[in-house]
Amino acid sequence: MPRFSIIVSVHGVAGRLPATLDPVLAQSFGDFELIVACAEPDSPAGALVTEYAGRDSRVVRVTGAREAGLRAAGGAYVLFLGTGDVLTPGALAGIDARLRESGGAEIDVLRLGHERMPWWEGEPVAELFEDRDPADVRLPVWATVYRRAFLREHGLAFPEGRYADLGCSGFVALAAGESAVLRTVCVRRPERRQGGGTAAGTRAETPAVAAALLDQVELVLDRAAARDLPEDRARALFAQLFAEVLDTAAAAPRGRAFFRRAGRLHRRYRPAGHRTRTVRARLLRRGAYTAFRALPALGRLTARARAYATRSALRRRRALTYAWYLRRPLDENLAVFAAYWGRGYACNPAAIHRKARELAPHIRSVFLVKEKELPHMPDDVESVVIGSRRYWEVMARAKYTFNNVNFEHSVVKRPGTVHVQTHHGTPLKRMGVDQIEYRAVAAATGSFGKLMRRVDRWDCSLSSNAHSTEVWSGAYPSAFEHLEYGYPRNDRYYTATPGEVAAIRERLGVPEDRVALLYAPTYRDYPRDVSAQFDLARFCAELGEEFVVLLRAHYFLDGDAGLRQAVADGRLIDVTSLRDTEDVCLASDALITDYSSIMFDYANLDRPIVTYADDWDVYRDTRGVYFDLLAEPPGHVARTQRELIEVLTSGRWADDRSAALRSAFRARFCEFDDGQAAERVVRRVLLGQPEEELPAPIPLRERLPAPAAAVSRPRTPAR
Fold first, then answer.
1. How large is the average pLDDT for residues 82-104?
2. Contact 654/631 with Cβ under 8 angstroms?
3. Orientation of helix 389-397 relative to helix 289-326, angle to 10°
4. Phi and psi torsions of 33, nearest 5°
5. pLDDT-based confidence at 717, cuts 50/70/90?
6. How far is CA 634 from CA 114, 241, 612, 662, 673, in A?
7. Which residues touch 410 (CB under 8 Å, ≥6 apart)?
8. How far is CA 371 from the centre of its chain?
9. Engineered SS bond to 349: which of 18, 86, 339, 585, CB 3.0-4.6 Å?
């Protein structure tokens, strides 16, 4: 008998299935059976499961839903997963160890730590049972391990209909088995995209579905009424079930029928001694439908009034605090760094910060971040949360400030301070006041007067080439000094060793014998159906076994079965969430992009670049550009997907013409990047050294960028 039976239920969805099956089969703990229950055995999902079963004897295919999988299960413990759920590496070993910690006592129900992964962006939301009762019937079935004998002894099963998980969890709670928790993330569930009011994940879209929730609640409460439950358990179960009902009732209008039935159930099953504490629950119990529907609007008005009062008070306190610190003397040895509006330790400010600690250890360097980024900051970096009292102190007293965007409007530029604007890319698209004639972009920018008042705080502006210097002069007309030192973040392209490149590729899972193509499209300021205009799944399939694609984007992966299959087959690696763009570039052998400024940084590596410009005319006319990219590209240009595939499969992407175009592009846009940019900035700004004492620029032809791993070519000086 296997230790675990892992049951995966599938309802006609094949694309996301490998994302669930592969992590299970890759577990270090191998004593399990993987039962896949297919509701439609003749579907593509059924064929895929048959293929998996042919490759691995632990995979068992059954016809039906989870109940069919449970009947076929032979393991001591059962775990139910849905399509798309991901078992983390080492999860089964950790679960087995936790079950054995009971000292001989049987654990009937083990709740697992889990994460819900946002479909678009943001940090995962972890549930580790610190804030909720581990016996809560609303906790997910897909993150719970059950002793199979316990389920069999008590006749526990999934009821028919929608919200079956809630019904099953209620029955399990009534059985009162021995429960425990494992405070380690074992399962990750990608949240599906919601939109248009009908996407997966929206609550009770129809009256029939809403009624199904009440059916499950009534089933559980009927069974509970037939038992002599202790008062505390009865009250807890009732409160948990009706918390779900109230959330569903409040999510969108359900109609009087749903509300009246819910109220009847509340009155019929309310345990003795249960106190109705919330306004919502009292209105439900009384059947006050009109007041219940009006409650959210009233709550929003009250919340807005409170928020306004709170913001006003906070602004006053902040102003007073900041004014106090502004009266204190400058700290001549304090430097403040920030990047991308506090989104983490990144870009040019991070590179300067690292070099400052090396060359100017007397300078206290502080990095500003949003609170949610604190867990991701390096342990040895002093971090300050934006908006905190400490933030206003360092902003008021720092002698030096570095940012790749602008600080907020309320920050005061004190006499004697030095502010360095590092920027975060070489401009192809129009910037600053040059955007005024492009209406859509100008509207998003807002007040150009406020923009220029922020620009007037700049003392120095960093450039990586003469083109940037010229653009910054016109786009941001002010009295700042141009520092033509190169971009510090690009230093790594010259200092990274072959061993580092190999280690990054291994960490990302890039096979040694594959050519890694980094695909990094840019943002558009106009509507664009990306998946319709560029079929990335077909692109990966038609490239052949020679290539693997590193995808640095968000919007392709949601709901695209072809892409899920490409990931499973090893043809595509999603590197979107990785924080260090430099690592991704170093790991690749060539770049495919459209109009992203990543091309200017990547050119420092002297590796092939292919431009995919299917909508260049629209981009040029809508966004505005400083030069004709198609006339002066960094490599071959493809205007259609078919052309792009031909450039790559024919080998033209790395031919002599590609090298010649790249050479001219590098001469123009990699002018000041030579691996010493951060040192020049630190010596000039923080140490006050004159220009003649700074490291002299290395001629382009003498620079040695980090070599690519898969494309074999001698490491010769750059052209």
1. 88
2. no
3. 30
4. -120, 145
5. very low
6. 45, 61, 11, 5, 16
7. 322
8. 16
9. 339
The confidence score (pLDDT) of residue 296 equals 72
**What is the spatial distance between Cα 594 and Cα 599, in angstroms, rounded to a whole number?**
9
Residue tagged 């694309």 (tokens): 15
Query: Tokens for 650?
Result: 């024919």
What are the φ/ψ torsions at residue 8 (nearest 5 degrees)? -110, 125
User: Which tokens belong to 367?
Assistant: 């990095």
- Tokens 């560029």 belong to residue: 534
Tokens of 108: 């009937």
Please name every residue paired with 592 in a beta bridge, in sequence order, or none if there are none: 519, 610
Band of the pLDDT at 531, cuts 50, 70, 90?
Answer: low
Q: Which two tokens stand for residue 259?
A: 């509300």
Provide the token pair at 710: 């898969």
pLDDT tier for residue 197 given thresholds of 50, 70 and 90: very low
- Per-residue pLDDT at 12: 63
Q: Note the helical H segments in 134-230.
A: 148-153, 164-175, 207-225
Structural element, H or E, at residue 554: none
3-class SS letters over 649-674 = HCCHHHCHHHHHHHHHHHHHHCCCCC
Can you give the three-state secondary structure of 229-293, one letter per residue? CCHHHHHHHHHHHHHHHHHHHHHCCCCHHHHHHHHHHHHHHCCCCCCCCCHHHHHHHHCCHHHHH
Q: Can you give the length of the chain in residues?
A: 719
